[in-house]
Amino acid sequence: GTNAKYEVMKDLENNPIKQDMKKGKARFYTYGMAFFNNGMFPQTWEDSAKKDDAGNLGDNDPLDVMEVGNTVRPIGSIVPVKILGALALVDDGETDYKLIALAKDG
Q1: Which of 4, 48, 57, 66 has its CA 20 to 30 A from that of 106?
Q2: Which position among 6, 29, 31, 97 bears the catalytic label?
Q3: For this structure, is 31 an active site residue?
Q4: Nearest-5° angle of CA 3, CA 99, CA 75?
């Protein structure tokens, strides 16, 4: 596994998955090694022009998924999952939903 934070690069051709950068520096998860695989659902979007019930705008990214389990998945894996629930986090005034899931093969 890795603690590097990866994102779909929406502004690059073919939307590659690359390590996220902020202010020219590579981003990493800082709370230790994750017990989940971080991913997203393609063809979904958190609308940055629409406010939620709390008055926050979407983060202009696809919906995130946290696939909980022991299997370390390669970056870019396509994994069928079962949704367990969702968390709505707010970061810099933007809502960022995290769907919690289990892999169907696990």
Answers
A1: 4
A2: 29
A3: no
A4: 40
> Which residues of the chain fall short of a pLDDT of 70?
1, 32
Per-residue three-class SS string for the chain:
CCCECEEECCCCCCCCEEECEECCEECECCCCCCCEEEEECCCCCCCCCCECCCCCEECCCCCEEEEECCCCCCCCCCCCEEEEEEEEEEECCEEEEEEEEEECCC
- Cα dist from 46 to 8, 13, 76, 79, 106, whole Å: 14, 20, 20, 21, 28
Beta carbons within 10 angstroms of residue 17's beta carbon: 13
